[in-house]
Amino acid sequence: MPIKVVSPLMEQFFHENPFRAWEMVNPPGGLPEAMRPIVDSWIGEGPNTAITPEQAEPVFSGLINDILNRTDLHPSSAARLVAQDLPAYVDFATPDGYVPTPID
């Protein structure tokens, strides 16, 4: 089943690293408490709770910076792209309700 994202750029990022979902739900410093139920909705069954670019920017700055380093997008456009596509990707990457973890 293909990932249902809007942006081919985001799809490329997701395919480059099989553990990108783990990185997204375990950002450096952890998720802010207010984001945990939102991210849990992406992992669990049921509808995915949307996020705004303003919510995505501080939490998923690593992914946003990766996008900025490879494109000429404005930072607000990169944050909007992440907010738009990340819920669908995490939902796709966690079909059994758990996030695969990398092996050290």
What features would you describe in this structure?
There is one protein chain. The protein has 104 residues and is mainly α. The chain has one domain. The chain contains six helices and no strands. The chain starts with 7 loop residues before the first helix and ends in an 11-residue tail after the last helix.
Structural class: mainly alpha
Give the end-to-end Cα distance, rounded to a whole number of Å: 28 Å
Q: Tally of extended strands?
A: 0
The H-and-E topology, N to C, reads as HHHHHH
DSSP helical segment count: 6
Q: Mean pLDDT score, rounded?
A: 81
Which runs of at least 5 residues are low in confidence (pLDDT < 50)?
none
Apparent shape: globular
Number of domains: 1
Radius of gyration: 13 Å
Residue share in helices? 55-70%
**Largest beta sheet, briefly?**
none
Strand residues, percent: under 5%
